[in-house]
Write a structure and sequence with these properties.
4 strands; binds adenosine-5'-triphosphate
Length: about 230
């Protein structure tokens, strides 16, 4: 084979590879890689890995699979997971991330923030606010289906929480960027005492843990989260 023909053939293949996104995405991670998440796979993962969290399982399965299958969501998906330390909040975030992006938490499209690690100094709030907003804006511009996980929300400064709020609303776009396909997951210990109290009351009255309904938790949780000094 002549070198010139071989060169042209290789260039043709490369151009096709780069310009045909589905082919490219077979070999590299893509933002659009898993636009259609498998509800069955997520359910299987939750059932086989996450224990004792029947409420979280049900809500997360419906919310995440419903959201991903909606081609035009009106607002981003916002999940707020509450509970004591070691109850599986980070664990379940990892499961969600892995079901949307193969790289899970290591994906370029998944961003994890830990309040005490990334935003430790109250005196730098203005700087953090600007940095966080431009990080969210930049990443959602590059990939609409970006996932942002905020750990230790109960320790996050109220000013920073306010900086995230605009992105969670029903805006078609904010300064030319649409956030409607993004996913925000907030993890918090706020309300943990009340969750434990409700579970303990059920146990004392001889009921099964699985009998606890979301409405049994909702009121206790909203009051307790509102009373948290950062209002989350
Ligand atoms: N409900 C659960 N089912 C199965 N494994 C669990 C569960 N909860 C916790 N684990 C295990 O414990 C580990 C620690 O839990 P995880 O980090 O998710 O807790 P957390 O709720 O995020 O705690 P923190 O509030 O301290 O951040 C997980 O990586 C997982 O292996």
């Amino acid at each position: 084979v002549e070198p010139i023909s071989l060169g042209l053939a290789l260039a043709g293949v490369l151009t096709g590879y780069i310009s045909y996104p589905r082919l490219y995405c077979l070999f590299a991670e893509c933002c659009s890689q898993k636009q259609s998440l498998s509800r069955d796979a997520l359910q299987k993962d939750l059932d086989s890995k996450l224990f004792g969290q029947h409420l979280a399982k049900k809500v997360i399965l419906n919310a995440v699979s419903g959201f991903i299958s909606n081609p035009k969501p009106k607002k981003p998906l916002t999940l707020s997971l509450h509970g004591w330390t070691g109850t599986g909040k980070n664990f379940v975030s990892k499961i969600i991330a892995e079901n949307i992006y193969e790289g899970g938490l290591n994906s370029d499209y998944v961003h994890l923030f830990v309040a005490t690690l990334h935003f430790p100094h109250v005196s730098n709030i203005t700087l953090y606010k600007d940095q966080l907003q431009s990080w969210i804006r930049g990443n959602v511009s590059a990939c609409a289906r970006s996932i942002f996980i905020f750990d230790e929300m109960d320790k996050m400064h109220a000013g920073l929480i306010d900086a995230i709020k605009p992105y969670l609303d029903y805006y078609d776009n904010l300064d030319g960027v649409s956030y409607q396909k993004a996913i925000f997951v907030f993890l918090s210990n706020a309300g943990a005492e009340r969750i434990t109290d409700v579970a303990l009351d059920f146990w004392r009255s001889g009921k099964q843990r699985e009998e606890i309904k979301l409405r049994d938790m909702e009121h206790a949780l909203s009051v307790s989260a509102f009373n948290n000094k950062n209002r989350i």
